[in-house]
Amino acid sequence: MARTSKKSAESTSVLSGENAISNREVEGLSQGQIVRRRFFRHRAAVFSLVTIISIVIFVFSALDFRLFGVWRIPGWWKWTTEDLPELRVGDCPGGTVGCPTVSLRPQFLGGAGIGLGTHPFGQDDIGHDFFALVMKGAQRSLSVMIVIGFLGGTIGTIVGSISGFYRGKIDSILMRLVDFMITVPAVLIGSVIGYHYGNLGAIFLAFYLGLFAWTGLSRLVRGEFLTLREREFVDAARVAGATNRRIIFKHILPNAVGIIIVSVTLLLSGAILLETALSYLGFGVVPPDVSLGLLISQYQDSFTTRPWLFWYPGFFIITIALSINFIGDGLRDAFDPRQRRRISKKERQESAISKKLAQADE
Amino acid sequence: MFAFIMRRLGALGVILMGSSFILYNLAAYSGDPLADLKTSTDPNRDFLMVALSRELQLDVPPPARYFLWLKGVLGLFVGHANFGMTREGATVGGDLAQAIPVTLRLVLASTILAIVMGIGIGVVTALRQYSRFDYSMTFVSFLMFSLPIFWVAVLLKQYLAISFNNFLREPNVPLKGLFFLALASGIFWASVVGGSRKTFWTVFGTATLIAGGIIAIMDAMNWFLHPGLGPIMVFGLSVGIAYGVTQLSVGISNKAALRASLTVSAATLLMYYPANWVFDNHQGALGVFAIFSILITVGVFAGISFSKIDRGPIIRTAVISAFLSSIIIVIDKFMQTWQPYMQTDAINYRPVPTIGQRSDLLERSDFWISNLDLVTHLFLPTVALTLISFAGYIRYSRGTLLEVLNQDYIRTARAKGLTERTVIMRHAFRNTMIPLTTIMVVDFAGVIGGALITERVFGWSGMGTLFYRGILSFDLNLLMGVFFVTATLSVLANLVADLLYSALDPRIRVGSGA
Description:
The complex is a heterodimer.
Chain A: H1 6-12, H2 17-26, H3 31-41, H4 43-62, E1 65-67, E2 71-73, H5 130-166, H6 168-182, H7 186-197, H8 202-210, H9 215-228, H10 232-239, H11 244-281, H12 292-299, H13 308-335, H14 345-361
Antiparallel strand pairs in A: 1-2
Chain B: H1 2-29, H2 35-38, H3 45-56, H4 62-74, H5 92-127, H6 132-145, H7 149-169, H8 175-193, H9 197-220, H10 230-249, H11 255-281, H12 285-306, H13 311-343, H14 367-405, H15 408-415, H16 420-458, H17 463-472, H18 476-504
Helix pairs in contact in B: 1-4, 1-18, 5-6, 5-14, 5-16, 6-14, 7-14, 7-16, 8-9, 10-11, 10-13, 11-12, 11-13, 12-13, 13-14, 14-16, 15-16, 16-17, 16-18, 17-18
């Protein structure tokens, strides 16, 4: 598939119209280019990618953020989570206080103009700026998600490739270990871990959760390695004298990268839901730290009086998880060689016309 | 086969022991069960500490204490398992015996609903691939994937339960709501049926008018206050079921099957008043069971007497129709119970509860009222769990069916001139069900383990709540008791999935080699 020679390009014209169209598209492109093209054609996935990148930049730049505890990146938002500004009274519906000031309706349409205002997401019951709390919570939830994804992805790939490549005794030991860990539902093991290590901080919690999150991924990678290691190109490499290390890293891993990336994205969306669920139960991130799940659990009773305390954290969780799921879907389509995109009527007609022209020429 | 099962069971035993050992030590070393007593100011706290230490055998180090616990659990094989005591002095076994039925009730209905709806919608999206319906269902299923259940639960409590209760106080459907519901039904059915532009608009118009008409009539008759189907509606629905099941099962052109199913519908009509008499005068599960068995027996005999060839499929069709018709009769009985249920003091015209697994104030003398109470309490958790879990079935059944439809044997089936119904239902759908069945079994075990959050949100006291209590009070025996049940279920589910796979797919043989 990597490069289609001139000769095979001629032979494709004999194939049916759809094949010809999709084959012509990948002519002379590398695997990476094909995947990239296919991904960028998936509109929902590209839109989600843009969304998630903007959310990450927006959330992490809003408040002061300490990178590795050393460099302090100043944030652009005026309040912090500790500030206690006075509760804003007035122009709130139903006599409530501290309602959101964010406005999306421009002035010429009778609104207050597009802008954030003093407390865009409102204030909580004692006056904390809720925008700052949500930004902090989103930072925590996103970092937990990234750590779990990174750790789970790395361990899963390593374990899966070792047991898939070497088979035999190592394989059965590692896979029994996976069996051990898969018997326990994620929420249960997460609760035990979270309750005892949650007070060490969000990153430690993520670290421990990541140590248990790799099992499903390692099974998938192992399966991929088991099939790939029997293929001809691996035999060829071995005959040519390649070491095991070279075969794994240069020949098998690049071919398994599709399945790894796709499962890591799914792991990520599962991780953010797991973290929020644990924090909601009180077994995840604990106060005074903030997380999106914790915010929902703290303010769920005020839903009838101050609904904004409930909507905004939920909105962030759903947007993040939804975007990641769509990106995962786009990546799966892009990496799957059997995946055919829908060929429109117009393309089919054009192909038929060009075929007729070619026949007429002959 | 037997040797295979025994070998697998042995391996499962080892896995269970290993993982319980890991979890036992993880939990035991991570906290001190005496912590709250050490900081208490109770004058006899030293005595309490000694008593608790003796009770929970805290003087034995955790790795060794694990084997004491294991010894008690292994008593399962000689008839008296001992899961140890909780900190409150109750037996863990007793607590579990109360909690397991609650959790099962919580997840069973939603799992069945999610499977039926998920597979139904998944199949339709696969058949209408790249249609607008497909795209919108894909979006909906991704959205469901991304919803945290505790968030959905709060919304459902607010909008579904409280607003619905308010609506039931004075049940008048506003004109706006009527238009909206009718249009929604029109759009749904039109996109499911698909086809050319003309069919689309025909179906859209018909579905909109029918839905709008039904809601208007229901509203005019005050149906929401006195729900019920009555013999005519039961018969009508039963005839509809007969046609539908026949069409899906053997095709409407099979007159023998259609006649057998219609006989069942006639029997349903005849059985309506006797069945209600049985329900009123011989309350209990036995009466319900009797009605089911009578109708199913009618189905079997109708199938035998109408069929000349193909006896099996025709009997199957009639029996499925009989089963569904019996369900309709039972639903009708529940609807008739609605009015007396609403009038009880415990309910007082607010029938949809937001929390709890049953109303404690309700007098449980009437079989139907107390069961209706269980149903209304199941309503919100079932909606929430179904919303979350049916997305997975949509995605999975869609993907599998698309893969199957690309196979050569489907092309062969079409080339033979088989009808589209036969190709889809017999060649494609059955092969789709093979991987789906195994997923369902494993998923069900997972849902039970994951019910922790749902139970917390809706205030049910099932296994999740026991586990929660176990973590909060460092109650190791309680924790391990819940873990033992969920882990055993999940490994057994994996075994059952493997066996089912080999039973359904003749290409896979278990017991040969690995």
